Amino acid sequence: MNPGLRITAENICLKRGERAVLDSVEFNVVPGEVVGLLGPNGAGKSTLLSILAGVARPDSGVVSLGTTHLGQWAAPARARAIGYLPQHADVYWSLTVWNVVALGRLPHRDQPDNTLEADHQAIEQALRRTEMLDFAERPFNSLSGGERMRVLVARLLAVGAGLLLADEPVTGLDPYYQLEFMDLFVDQAAGGAGVVLVLHDLALAARYCSRLVLLNAGTVIAAGAPAEVLSDDRLHEVYRIDAVRGVYGGQPFLVPWQRSLS
Amino acid sequence: MQARWAYGALLVVLSVAVVVLAVVSLSQGRAPLQIFDLLFALLGEVEGANEAQLDLGVLILTELRIPRMLLGIMVGASLGMAGAAMQGLLRNPLAEPGIVGVSGCAALGAVLVFYSGLSAQFMLALPVGGILGAWVAVLLLYALAGRGASILTLILAGVAINAFAGAMTALVLNLSSSPFAFLEIIFWQMGSVADRSMENIWLCLPLMMIGWFMLWRAAPALDALSLGEDTASSLGFNLPGVQRLVIGGTALCVGSGVAVSGVIGFVGLVVPHLLRPWVGHRPGRLLPASALGGAALVLAADIVLRVIPTDTELKLGVVTALVGAPFFLYLVRKLRQETL
Fold first, then answer.
1. Residue B102 is part of which domain span?
2. Which residues contact B193 (CB under 8 A, 6 or more apart)?
3. Is the separation of the CB atoms in B300 and B21 below 8 Å?
4. A53 interface with B at CB cutoff 8 Å
5. Nearest CA in chain A to B339
């Protein structure tokens, strides 16, 4: 894996027509942390993530990776440093699972020290980590939704980037794999990567993320430790819900319970 | 790693097929030729044969059959590779230069250049006209059906572009006073590689080679595009650059090919479709395989039409359409069941 780099976004603004999708957003991630990017539908989470990935450009504001402006990174070097899994990711041709994951090695193809052996190992390791190695020769299109997501996450891991950006990576997975994948991302962070996850599951976010950033209508409402960010008032204000809270094994948890009575 | 071996074997098999078909192609025609004797004669090893007959044979070979064979390979490779590249860029298995109107617009460009008299003054004008026509058509296609559009959108875009090319061609026909105009235009509508000179080949080969090179350069990006535009972009590929390579490369090789051979449809549809399973559905690997497969298919079709005993020789474009159109119907039906 490439050493993780700090990514910093300052004063990010993006308009689509008259509507401000992102308005003066500040965001940063350091290696070793798992940041949950939360907010209701249409809050601007996916847009912010694509800007961090260098796929979309803000109207104004600066994103820096390490000490360098993201726009000044050569595209292949940026691709090796940042792994990105967009929302609704899909595969268009009937590629095998192995060949889908192998696409994650494309940014390494012109590296002088990259070998077929290194590619092979990275692909195999990613498939093993997502428990999809037995499916390696199966066509991607023949898999179930959850299996596809596991392959796409394996593709993300195969890049070996020090910063992982994943948009709803546990959506559509059964509870076992939701927990498995959250563990996987926590492991990646423990290994020195910075991780940003767009999540809708507040319980998972509160339990696994080291820090949460709550977006609403394009602005950052709150950022910090999960317990601070997901206060009753904010859940009411931003999500229009009430949550039930408890403590299990010394750890606080919350479960979205009902729509707020306004 | 077995796949890499299988891919190499596929390319070897296709190359052998092209070579065999090329030799068969040289031996087919009105005049019966002892093809191997003649090839040796060309290489300067004559062994007491009838020299006058040999000279005639050599003439037929160098003036008629070799250009025909070479043009078949060049046009077939261009159509196969361009079809595969357009399908990769648009992520749509029905994108084909003929179906989506690229060949039609290229023919229109060539016709316009021909009638304006530009081609008489300036040799390169004809392929350049074809290339410009093809380029406009691919740009239109990308504007109408780019960004992962549905199969249906692509077909509609093709209908629209073909209708445009048809209307413009009809206008040219309507306005032309020469009685030969009909014949000339129909000559471009029904593609053929017969009776072309080596001059034609030298004219379009360099342009085609640039086109092939551009398409080949796009191969890794087309692989990445299997994951959609955002992921491809995050893997370090500059999408506008990829679009320029594929659109420019297609226009160069299909445009210059059509300017010399006329419209030969469906090659870019049938060949990538048949070869795709053999390259593990990988868009990048499909490019060289489809180039070889396209060359083999056009050579084979051009042999078949010479073997079939008809009063007037069938045109190549007619033969490929006769085979390709039912195949297109079958594919549309199959894809409808899968996706709609």
1. 2-29+72-339
2. B68, B71, B72, B75, B261, B298, B302, B316
3. yes
4. yes
5. A92
Chain A positions touching B148 (Cβ under 8 A) are 92
Please determine, looking at this structure, whether the domain spanning A7-213 carries the CATH number 3.20.20.70: no
Contact check, Cβ <8 Å, A86/B230: yes
* Assigned domain for B47 exists: no
- At a CB cut-off of 8 Å and minimum separation 6, what does B284 contact? B88, B219, B220, B222, B223
**Domains in chain B, number:** 1
Query: Mean of the per-residue pLDDT values for chain A?
Result: 92
Identity of residue B284: G
Residues of chain A with pLDDT under 50: none
CATH code at B159?
1.10.3470.10
Contact flag A107-B236 (C-beta cutoff 8 Å): yes
Q: What is the length of chain A? A: 262
Q: pTM of the entire structure?
A: 0.90
In a domain, residue B108? The reply is yes
At B181-228, the pLDDT tens digits run 777 778 778 888 888 888 888 888 999 999 999 999 999 999 999 999
Residues of chain A contacting B230 with CB distance shorter than 8 Å: 50, 53, 55, 84, 86, 89
- Rounded to whole angstroms, what are the CA distances from B208 to A218, B130, B285? 49, 12, 19
Choose among B230, B236, B282: nearest Cβ to A76: B236
Indicate yes or no: CB of A84 within 8 angstroms of CB of B230.
yes
In a domain, B64, yes or no: no
Q: Is A176 on the interface with B (CB under 8 A)?
A: no
- B17 contact partners, CB below 8 Å, separation of at least 6: B292, B296
> Which ipTM score applies to this complex?
0.92
Delimit the domains of chain A by residue range: 7-213
Measured distance CA(B108)–CA(B111) in Å, rounded: 5
Which residues sit opposite A139 in a β-bridge?
A96
Cα dihedral B290→B292→B297→B299 (10° resolution): 150
Residue B60 one-letter amino acid: I
- For A84, the closest chain B residue by CA position comes to B234
In a domain, B57, yes or no: no
Using alpha carbons, select from B250, B252, B238, B229 the residue that is nearest to residue B91: B229
Please report the residues numbered 88 through 127 in chain A whose beta carbons come closer than 8 angstroms to any beta carbon of chain B: 89-96, 99-100, 103-104, 106-107, 109, 120
